[in-house]
């Protein structure tokens, strides 16, 4: 009998951008929320939304009738706080889809607004939705833009002012802790149970890797949530605190990775957590508050590419650790599972779409050649042929136009369906039209590997050598991509994509 664990379904793979030998990793750090612990997104974000809305109602805003729309926003979108728009951009920063408030902008309005705009996330105008925690914020902002345009909100206020007000109320909701108190009181309602995650971490620990928990959540939330998610799935007598070599709460990421801050021990006394300044080596089994990555590296005797950090926040977990510390990085994208399944379910249609696009490309190529031949004859220059006759060429050009119109009518519904996979408004997380999305580009740049959940490491083992696929460019004959400048049969590749306004 084979001792091997069966391979994962495709949606639970580890996807590698930069070759990573897990055997060379000496320590693995983890974020907690939406990394080690996954939540029922709609349940969590609906309650977060309701807390923000109720605060606004208390302030006299006429918004009691608003409700959370889970399809209105998704991770990777960008809020244009200057114009009150929700945007999806491609890898180059060009806007490919836009809503003003909750209404889709027309092609003409979007072109007029953004044709000369390249999104630069360093500018304060743009707010990138880094995590699933951003969905409620984006949803209520878009809805409030509609109310602002209708003159239903109090006081003189611009779109930027409106966003700051939403942000302030969201922060206040988290600071008051009412939402987290609800989750602690009823974790079964909010937390997705995954017994494979503790097993994956046990594999890593017993393979000699140091395990680190570095979370922005406070101790009063971290301890009960980790107890609920982990302890019942660990060997008898073992708790989650014994699983980790270092536990750091209230880490203030991304500042934890970029600055130096005081480190405190979390001292539990009479059911309360008190803080005591700490200097010197870390103590086993003691949770810590604050501190810095530099201090942690010194304690571990490790640095740079000896450490892998796993988190769900594109900037706070992955971008900064890669840029500043040169740690290896893994991004958790829970939505990836639905995305991969959606792509697989669309494969037959996609194949048909690609086949019909080959036909369209050939007709377009013939049409272009006929137009050029007619142009050369008309202006009497360059090499041209006297056969077929000009009327015959004109007739053939008209026939091609008719055939292409008919083909476009066939392609249109398939192309539209491709843009609505996973989300009817925004489509796939990693695509923007026929290109990679802005989020996908960041995943490529900053995440050495990415996957849908931590427990996917279970299938790979702590000893895996993850190899990235060979990089490709449009001229690479082994990878379909774009329109070739010569026949597909000569290039050895195919045609990919549709018109789609690209």
Task: Give the arrangement of secondary structure elements.
Layout: E1 15-16, E2 20-21, E3 27-30, E4 38-39, H1 41-58, E5 78-80, E6 85-89, E7 95-100, E8 103-104, H2 107-114, E9 126-128, H3 135-149, H4 159-176, H5 178-185, H6 187-190, E10 191-192, H7 196-206, E11 210-214, H8 219-230, H9 240-243, E12 246-249, H10 255-258, E13 263-269, E14 272-277, E15 287-290, H11 293-300, E16 307-311, H12 314-325, E17 328-332, H13 336-345, H14 347-379, H15 390-419, E18 431-432, E19 435-436, H16 438-446, E20 449-451, H17 457-460, E21 465-466, H18 488-491
Parallel strand pairs: 3-11, 3-16, 11-12, 12-15, 16-17, 17-20
Antiparallel strand pairs: 1-20, 2-21, 4-10, 5-6, 5-9, 6-7, 7-8, 13-14, 13-15, 18-19
Helix pairs in contact: 1-3, 1-4, 3-4, 12-16, 14-15
Task: Explain what the structure shows.
By secondary structure, the protein is α/β, with parallel strands linked by helices. The protein folds into three domains: 160 residues, Rossmann fold, CATH 3.40.50; 145 residues, no CATH class; 93 residues. 42% of the residues lie in helices and 15% in strands. Strands 1-20-17-16-3-11-12-15-13-14 form a ten-stranded mixed beta sheet, with helices on both faces. Strands 8-7-6-5-9 form a five-stranded antiparallel beta sheet. It has a two-stranded antiparallel sheet with strand order 2-21. The longest helix is centred in the last third of the chain and has 33 residues. The two termini are 52 Å apart. The relative contact order is 0.16. One of its GO terms (molecular function) is metal ion binding. Keywords: Hydrolase, Magnesium, Metal-binding. This is HAD superfamily (Subfamily IG) hydrolase, 5'-nucleotidase. Belongs to the 5'(3')-deoxyribonucleotidase family.
